Amino acid sequence: MTQLITCNNIIYLRNTSSLHWHSVTRMMSEESQPMRQVDLGSPLDPPVSGNWFPSPPPPIYTCTLSPELEAKALEELQEKPEWRLRDVQALRDMVLKEQPNLRTRLDDAFLLRFLRARKFDYDRAMQLLLNYHGSRCSWPEVFQDLKPSKVKHVLDLGFLTVLPHPDPDGRYILCLRPGKWKANDYPFEDNIRAIYLTLEKLIQPEETQVNGIVILADYTGVGLSQASNPGPFLAKKTVSILQDSFPIRIKAVNIINEPRIFKGIFAIIKPFLKEKMAERYILHGSDMGSLHRHIPQSVLPEEYGGVAGHLNMSAWSKLLLDSEEEFVVEFCQPDPLEGVVLPSSMMFEGDQPRGSQDDDSFRGLRSQLYYCY
């Protein structure tokens, strides 16, 4: 049986016997497909409403990287243009051979995200892909029926946005304002849902896959109620998903206006961070001068001592909400793995067997997190 779903001029075909999604447009000639142009523009050009964020690669994959970004990808990610599609095919073959029942996209653009995130190491890219899908099974409160309309209340609250201008290194800036959320507003998991959808949108353009992103977290208004929620267990799950299960390069996390209680919050998170990631956390307090040494004023809103206008929370919300259809295709289809038990041997690097005495440790948690039932 074959199922067709159309989204953003791409026809997705699913053969229910193979459980894999394919882009039908890959079978058409390149000459028959109009190529979508990607134009980042000047970093300080005012964004055009609804059209300020770069597009994903075209339906039939054609590299959209500039020569400068191709050189950067070669230097930092070991991505060789002449080997790019060969590497993608190698990862595709690994999926088909080692995990034939895994429901996943297999198109070039999608698999490239995982190769770039793991510097074209096939095994590590495969592991990341498994983690990516395993996380969806492990946390249904976050991933079930995941689409922008379900987190509109989070967006309306002003919990997060993406600044319209990338920094001088081409990295878009995800701005989080956890103080806007109160524990009695809605479940903490809704914040994770909004962050995850934002990351999914951010990672679509190849520029982000190469440059990575920067996080700016404004802790104004964060008090004891936010600090005690989500607690260590959900903190572990959140860090594990964002650090080990998503194909994006987080290059810096800038914390501003953090209260004294933030030391307690960070003490909960830090044990679960890899050393390299922990080193990327920068605490600025209320010192805007310190922040400007890491993020220039030219891309920051006036609220953070910048010159790029007032903080606009609506542009990113509109972009996400306008992308509802593509997220329905990606996250809201019936799960072909429902009722399928994957082999217990499908464990992840560093995991311990379930039921070990160290169940409360992070490794014990990761074993539970990455099992897919």
Automatic annotation (TrEMBL):
SUPFAM superfamilies (alphabetical): CRAL/TRIO domain (SSF52087), CRAL/TRIO N-terminal domain (SSF46938)
UniProt-listed Pfam families: CRAL_TRIO, CRAL_TRIO_N
Source species, domain of life: Eukaryota
Start and end residues of each CRAL-TRIO domain: 147-312
CDD domains according to UniProt: SEC14
SMART domains: CRAL_TRIO_N, SEC14
InterPro entries: CRAL-TRIO_dom (IPR001251), CRAL-TRIO_dom_sf (IPR036865), CRAL/TRIO_N_dom (IPR011074), CRAL/TRIO_N_dom_sf (IPR036273)
Protein name: CRAL-TRIO domain-containing protein
Organism: Umbra pygmaea
